[in-house]
Amino acid sequence: MASSLNPHPNAHPLAGAYSNAFQIAAQLDARAARTLPEVTATVQHYAMLLETRIKAKASGRPGPNAPTGDYRRSWTHEVSTDGLSVTAVVGTNKPQARRLEYGFVGADSLGRIYNQPPYPHVGPAVEEIRPLFIAAIGDTIDDDS
Length: 145
Hints:
The chain is α+β, with helices and mostly antiparallel strands. Helices cover about 45% and strands about 15% of the residues. The chain contains 4 helices and 4 strands. Strands 1-2 form a two-stranded antiparallel ribbon.
């Protein structure tokens, strides 16, 4: 039976409703303010590791050959924060990246015919770094300091 002090239908008639929502919200805000710099540093570190791993895998078979190193050098990373979120982008501006990763079969825009096999280097690098990154973010968030 609900009471005037506690509207829950299963509450005892003498039970009151107490809320420390403001205290919890303040504690969560303080925790987020402490944690954001640590998460940003972790994201920055693993974005750099992912970029490095992609470059290593783009340095010959089973990944693509890199005779000049221009494609390898084109990989960069950028980390940004917006409020309480952190975003990292690892990428390249080279048009051959998609073809190298996934291959290409068929005619291009100039009518040339290709049967280019894939040379995966991004996907395998992501799969190597992913579990390390997830563990590091978990350690950062679970830290009770």
